[in-house]
Amino acid sequence: MLGTLGAPERHWLRDRRPREVGEVPPEPVPTSRATVVRPEPFASREAASAWLAELRRDSDARDAELERALAILNRALRAQRAAAADPYVPDVSVERALVIRLGYGSGAAVADGRFGEALELPRSGARRVKRSMEAPEERFAALLGGHEEALAAEELVLRARADIDAGRDREAALQARVAIEALIAETGTDALEPERQTVIAAAAAALAGDRPEGVEEAVAAMEALLRRRRLGG
Q1: pLDDT tens, 106-158?
Q2: What pTM was computed for the model?
Q3: HEC states along the chain?
Q4: Span 79-105, pLDDT tens digits
Q5: Would you list the domain boundaries of the chain?
């Protein structure tokens, strides 16, 4: 269940002409709320409460529940991208969420953000890389200032990783096929030849409708090579 809330709707100027502005306050923005609901109800309120109590105690169980919900949500966003032919509908991640809640309640109430009982999880924040290792802020400045140029393969490997994390196995195999060829060409390495053969076979399997194998390991090897390159190794 998807909804938008938190900011008034903004209309384009009806005469479509620009207008003069001075100092203006920050523009209010909408917030999207996604609620993933199990298809089968709990047998009783007591069963639902016991489920939530287990999640409260067990961080691994919470992570598994979030992973399942995130996979469902990203499948919905993938469908939206395809239906709207809009490449700018993004995937979502736990790290980018404003609020995460796990709970239970009646269907209509939960869809409106009202739970019978719920946990609100602390924000994990964006993934951070140790500054002593890679210093992404410094590299960002170098890239933005034109002192360094990003490889095309870096973007392609990131897309393959996003497909893997979202469970899009066929897309990951095809994306990894392009990524590894670009990485080999741009760096001149021959260290990835075993992974290249794996990815070639995986992409062929994906095109044939079969399950691709070995893609995640190959992408991890590409990520490791890029990491060594960033560190000057």
Answers
A1: 878 887 878 999 999 887 644 443 444 567 888 889 889 999 899 999 999 99
A2: 0.78
A3: CEEEECCCCCCCCCCCCCCCCCCCCCCCCCEEEECCCCCCCCCCHHHHHHHHHHHHHCHHHHHHHHHHHHHHHHHHHHHHHHHHCCCCCCCCCHHHCCCEEEEECCHHHHHCCCCCEEEEECCCCCCCCCCCCCCHHHHHHHHHCCCCCCCHHHHHHHHHHHHHHCCCHHHHHHHHHHHHHHHHHHHCCCCCHHHHHHHHHHHHHHHCCCCCCCHHHHHHHHHHHHHHHHCCC
A4: 999 999 999 999 998 888 889 999 999
A5: 29-121, 136-228
